[in-house]
Amino acid sequence: MSLSFEAMVAFRHLRSRRRNTLVSTITAVSILGIALGVGTLIVVTSVMSGYTGSMLDMILSTTSHILIQGDGVGVEGYEDIIGKVMKNPHAVAASPYVLGQALLKTKNGTVGIAVKGVDPQREADVTGVVGEMAQGRFGDLKGKAVFVGKDLADEKGLKVGDEVTLISPSQVASPFGMIPVMSRFTITGLFETGMYDYDMGMVLINLKSAQSFFDMGDSVTGVAVKVDDVRKAPQIARDLQGALGYSFWVRDWKSMNRNLFAALRIQKFTLFVILLLIVLVAAFNIVGTLIMVVMEKGREIAILIAMGATRRSIGRIFRMEGLLIGTAGTLLGIAAGTGLCWALARYKFIDLPRSVYYLSTLPVRVRLVEVLIIGGCAMVISYLSTVYPAWRASRLHPAEILRYE
Q1: Run of H or E residues at 61
Q2: pLDDT at position 194 over 90
Q3: Which of 158, 220, 313, 343 is the most exposed place for a label (fewest CB within 10 A)?
């Protein structure tokens, strides 16, 4: 008995000639349930993948791939460190930086911010802040110039050309006692990285100005390094650690953001498991559908057995019916889910508060591997749901069913 015959019988069972029958209704509900679960899973996993990818892009645009810091207050002789770093074949660029806390006094109030001093020429090769300038040129960051984030400028009503005052937490002696160190700067540029905390809580000044403002002499906070492959950053960081010695602290971008990405992975997996329950509920509908078919088509099953159909063939018919329902629901769900993802990515009709999610729109990134995994899980669940109904159909006794016919 060929497989085509079993497929024909399976199709005839699911395509009842009588309209609005209970079996056909439950079949449609089962298909829609599978489609709903698959489509929802695709949208959620695509949004989580998009959010993780967007966060990674923003992090790598504002911080370097590897940071080298000293075990004390600062790093001295950073030129020698940069020379050793650039001997690594995977190192693309390196730039010193100074990082500290200060108060920014504006005409509209005072706010606590992080101050980062950079070398404009070297920093341009290390991070992507240069390409995120909303106003001004990165080369203008010299002398008493300061760059502020666009969000901070909008919050405080600042614009290019305004003067602001940086107030250091350290104090110096004066005839009037201990007073904080203050220095006036002129805004020459606005940057916009897309990360709300960065654009709201950090200002950039020249490296020499930062060393003078924080009284660091010729030392720096650390050295930022860019590599040719961000995926190999952990191994490159270990190589640099061995070359520089353990008097320095070498960290890669993965270790610095381990908790964030671990939390995103756990959240994504948890949502996957929870939403997979929708497919499981639809699978119970498949079980109910097939049991109803067994009850409704008992006479036909008995006739097939009496005509020579094997019990294995009968079981295969009902397993095929369940797979047909699962395949239809899976394909419909994939079409609906990817279509909705395309619409979200194309029209961006969902806005997000950047102060909470760091993003202004809902990011979507559809990955073929995830779509295949979701479709595969739906098909496996659909197949498992056919085991009991197929077994029950194969155990029917034609004599008992046809006795009163």
Answers
A1: helix 22-62
A2: no
A3: 343
